[in-house]
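ok trying again, last paste got cut off:
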Amino acid sequence: MKKLFALLLVNLLVTAGVQAQFQEIDSKYINQVKGKILLVALQEETTRTLLDLKPKPEETKKYKDGIANFNAMLQETAAKYWKYGTKGVEAKPQSEVDKLMKEGNAKYVVLQYALREGRPKPLMFKDIYGSGEYGNEHRELSKKEGYAVFHLQTPQRDKEPINIYSVFLPVAYPSQADMIYAVQMMNNQFATMLKKRDYKFDQFDQEIAENNKLLKKKTLLIDPSQLSSKTTVEDIKKGYGNNVEVADYATIIEAVKNGEEGYAYVMITPIEMPNSKITQNKVSVMLMHLVIDTQDGKVLAKAKPTRMNYDKLADDITRKEAKEYMAAGK
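nice, full thing came through this time. structure:
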């Protein structure tokens, strides 16, 4: 009975008009953001972590490299993929960004990395980014740590910054493909609103109606962690009806970085609920599948899982979701 009630709750929440990470952009920011410098907030080494690692020179190096690698990926991503603004891109350490925020420096709009809950753990930068590689094992480790978010914010003098737009990610410590997805999502939404002032977000329905037909020309790349032991590639193919390939996660990163034309991939991302205090059976984080074009970050399809996995929504892809991808634009 308890499990049945949880499932009913999930169905109610999923259909109750979700709010948040994918939201309407206030029209007053459309021109404001375009005329500002995008300021990228960079991670900094922490004194406490360096002291803890001091007896381990190799681990210290991995930590320093991890911070440097994360920052390099983020800077490269912002410089290459932020195309909405006209004033360019700059990057500064987090401490300097915080000062500019407090001063209310009006020439910037800030790209801020954070976690959905809690704060990033310094040692995770060593474990995730220290080797300079991001493969399946890094993805699995990052997935266990929760969800990341990129905020686009404007400074206010002596006040909390205004949060203009947020993009949540499937993992706490993002790959460069995740960073590209976040920046492209922001860029695409702002650019669309600039061209279509009557545009209504409505959870990507307009984009999908226009773009869903492109799926027939795409091979759907699936990260191994997105398949459970109960689901086979053949199951997915039967629901999807087009080409599907389970690929090493490093392959997906390269396809996104290279903007390859013939592929799409799935982001299983959290959706914020209107009431963040929903705690019945711990179902407080709703999920949405978004099928993303590797070429330009366009949203091609979506699905909303309602299957339960003990006390939370299942975060894998089954035949059901794959079938919904193809039906999303009809």
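cool. Confidence is low (pLDDT under 50) at residues 1-21, 273-283. The first strand starts at residue 37 and ends at 42.
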